[in-house]
Amino acid sequence: MQSKAARLAITRSSNAIWSRKWTFLLIGIALLLGRAVILDSLMPFAIAYFAVIYFLRKDIYGWIAVALVAGSFLAVEPSPLWIAMEIIVLFLMLRGLEAYEKAELSTAPILVFAATLLVQLFSALIHESLSWYAFTMVLVEAALAFVLTLVFIHALPVLTMSKKTATLRHEEIICVMILLASVMTGAVGWTLYGMSAEHVMSRYMLLLFAMAGGAPLGASVGVVAGLILSLANFGAVVQMSMLAFAGLLAGLLREGGKMATAFGMLLGTSILTVYIGSQADVMNSTWESVAAAVLLLLTPRSIIRTISRYVPGTNEHVKSQHEYAKRVRDVTANRVSQFSEVFRQLSRSFGQFSGSEATKPTKEDELEHFMNAVAAQSCASCHRQQACWNKKYFHTHKMVTEMIEAVQVGKLSTGGDMPRSWTSHCLKAGQVATVMRHQYELYQHHMRWKKQLYDSRQLVTDQLLGVSLIMEDLSKEIKREGQTLHLQEEQIREAVEGLGLSIQGINIVNLEEGNVDIEVYHTFGKGFDECRKIIAPLLSDIMGEHIAVKHEQLPEKSGDPHLVTFGSAKQYEVETGVAGAAKGGDLLSGDSFSLVELSNGKFAVAISDGMGNGERARQESSAALSILQQLLQSGMDEKLAVKSVNSVLLLRSSDEVFATVDLAIMDLYTAQTTFMKIGSTPSFIKRGTEVIPVAAGNLPIGILQEIDVDFVSMQLLPGDTLVMMSDGIYDAPGHAVNKEMWMKRIISEMKTDDPQEMADMLLETVVRHHEGDILDDMTVLVTRIDKHLPEWTSLRWPGMARVERPRTVS
How far is Cα of residue 187 from the mean position of the Cα atoms in its chain? Predict the structure, then answer.
């Protein structure tokens, strides 16, 4: 394998060769522009070209100046002196501005105008020909130099491939055409076997751009090239119309390849030449077209594809845009994956550190700690220290051990009722007992804070891991969206158009089973609802699953296409009902509830009951549900989300506040439901005449650092009704009644299946049971799950195959 230094040397060498090639090209362009003349006497190209090169390539501006002056020697009317003077004046102006750090590319057109005006006025004065006509021509030449400088500022970066963006504006394309036509102007008058060099070059350029961009670009090149050539040679005025028509025909036949494009150009030039020229002109024009066609056939297709990539609207440009977007997605996905791995490593580091801290001290360590503390504070100043800890070590050790055990059970006394074995052995038994109790309190505080520190580190470990998993899922989603789905898009387009519907565009975001996401742009009329009645059933057939309209976006402007999003239809649907009342009939209840559809095809229902009643309880319960909802929507694991909420509630306030959480997450594709209860009352599932309780026994969140989260997973069936309630409903019958049996009887006797009616009836039953008194905040949440029945069934279209789904990104 090559070393890094060797690869760097090779890269520098290739860059140097590439730069040298562009240097020779720029010098060649300078030779032709130095010779170029328009309107018989104006030469505005040289100074404009030098000004732009001075800013873009300071390393070669000297060679460019020499090439421009040398090219002027070859002109029909050589004027190297005046071109050299214009370049010198401009150069002095630029040097003067650089001394004050004012020289910028944006000032180049104004400096070119001033330099051209000064030199040409001086030339007119020298030749004693300063008249109004001569002054007007000087102004025209200075203005043309000004405009050409602006043109070259946009064109040269494109021509030398130094422009970084992959898309050219129409103005930049026109500027490139003007630059190339200006270069061809420098070849006016050169002939070979009766063929004009500028005609061959112009037609070759026309073929090149027609092949790359089609009829619009070919016609545009013909107009620009013909206009510039007609300014250089008044006899070539007919070239503008002829080249425009030839470019149009060549672009229309570009799909047939190089031969067809060349035939279109040959046909266009021949038709108009027959009407405007003699037989000799027709033959010369034909041979010029043939020479241009031969140059096109010798041109590598890679050059044509490179030009096409910069022209908006071409297939190559669209492909390059897709490739650029894919590279951006890949880079983004890789960066997200890297960040995910960083968080995973941090989680491992915290986990290792927490694990090392979690080791509890042994009995021997605790005994040694207390003995050292007693020896340091009680025995150090005692005259019997040596006797107790040397001669009577075992007796002393036994006494201290008994004291430690007494401290731990809370039965250590410092008064006269201490055991005689202690007082007879130690003269300062009371003092030792006091020191022992004080040290034990310090030890308890130390262990409590140590436990909290460990729990906090463990929570950080879990949260970092949760963030890592979320970012990993995001990376997979980005990679999945970057998959090439052009074939599937064309297949769906053909299927829709086969039914007689014309759509403006289609974009497949995702084809994963159960998570299909397709965007369609259309301009259908109002009132027929083709998307729901025709396109969605058609997609259901070719996708092999129920597809429904998820979202419709109206256009901002009249006439713009509508955007309709199709997605996988859920296998199940839910219907909910809520009823509640505040304690004593107040307006503000301490209970909160949440109904939210998660992004992964799940539906979450939750109730939270804050401690007490009123505004403070409402704040705690709503905060718990709000944070939990946001964490679940972000994709975090349910258990970790609950632990995070518990940690937030603990850190929010030092007061004793807590909240219960009763959460049920339903998978709308399988009806598998996960129940999570933290200090909440049981829930009940009504299945026909059977009522199934769902209960768990643990403390509410916000009380302990480490909470137990009980998960209960159950498979719900179509028609099942889930009843969730706060303790104000569940505790209504009082302590003398079996609450679970009472609630099961009330729910089983309900004759309705409507969730809202059930919630209202249950709340009314509890209120009537207390003779109209509302003793606590009450909330009941009823959710019914049913099989989803699509509005329109699938539409079978004969001969249409199923869409092939891409492989899932792992």
Answer: 51
Q: How crowded is residue 706: how many other Cβ atoms within 10 Å of its Cβ?
A: 12
Q: What does the alpha-carbon distance between residue 71 and residue 91 come to, in Å, rounded to a whole number? A: 19
Better-scored residue on pLDDT, 173 or 369: 173
Q: State both tokens at 121.
A: 């006025």
| Torsion sign over Cα 305, 306, 311, 317 | positive
Q: What's the pLDDT at 1?
A: 41
Give the pLDDT confidence of 118-137 residue by residue, as tens digits: 998 988 888 767 788 888 88
> How many angstroms separate the first and last alpha carbons of the chain?
31
Contact 250, 206 (CB under 8 A): yes
Q: Which residues pair with 677 in a beta bridge?
A: 662, 710
CB 399 within 8 A of CB 425: yes
Cβ 512 vs Cβ 805: under 8 Å: yes
Q: List Cβ neighbours of 547 (8 Å cut-off, separation of 6 or more).
A: 516, 518, 536, 539, 540, 566, 567, 568, 569
* pLDDT of 142 over the 90 cut: yes
Are 254 and 236 spatial neighbours (Cβ–Cβ below 8 Å)? Answer: no
pLDDT digit string, tens, across residues 780-794 = 999 999 887 766 666
CA distance 11 to 264: 43
pLDDT bin (cut points 50, 70, 90) of residue 2 is very low
Range with the lowest mean pLDDT among 57-71, 613-627, 682-696?
A: 613-627
Q: How many Å apart are CA 685 and CA 664, to the nearest integer?
A: 12
Nearest CA to 607 among 474, 782, 395?
A: 782
Q: How many CA atoms lie within 13 A of 483 on its CB side?
A: 21
Tell me the pTM: 0.53
Q: Say if CB 292 and CB 312 are below 8 A apart.
A: no
Residue 238 has pLDDT above 90, yes or no: no
CA distance 165 to 568: 38
**Separation CA 155–CA 561 (nearest Å):** 35
CA distances from 101 to 23, 90, 104, 111 (A): 27, 16, 8, 15
DSSP state of 669: T
pLDDT category of residue 212 using cuts at 50, 70 and 90? confident
CB 485 within 8 A of CB 511: yes
Neighbours of 475 (CB within 10 A): 20
Place of tokens 């919630």: 759
Structure confidence at residue 702 (pLDDT)? 46
DSSP secondary structure string, 79-103? Answer: -HHHHHHHHHHHHHHHHHHHHTT--
Interatomic CA distance for residues 106 and 52, integer angstroms? 10
Average pLDDT over residues 597-605: 79
Helices assigned H by DSSP within 300-388: 301-310, 315-357, 363-374, 385-386
Q: Which residues contact 282 (CB under 8 A, 6 or more apart)?
A: 270, 273, 274
Instruction: Tell me whether residue 536 is exposed, middle or buried, using C-beta atoms within 10 angstroms of its C-beta: 0 to 12, 13 to 18, 19 or more.
Output: buried
Contacts of 88 (CB under 8 A, 6+ apart): none
**719 and 786 Cβ atoms separated by less than 8 Å:** yes
Q: What does the pLDDT read at residue 18?
A: 47
Q: How far apart are CA 3 and CA 444, in angstroms?
A: 62
Q: How many residues does the chain have?
A: 810
List, in order, residues 6 or more apart from 676 with CB less than 8 Å away.
Answer: 638, 639, 642, 661, 662, 663, 664, 665, 709, 710, 711, 712
**Ramachandran area for residue 690 (φ above 0: left; ψ -120 to 50: alpha; else beta):** beta
- Tokens in use for 466? 């949760």
Two tokens at 107?
């000032």
Rounded Cα distance between 723 and 683, Å, is 6
CB of 27 within 8 A of CB of 220?
no
Residues facing residue 501 across a β-bridge? none
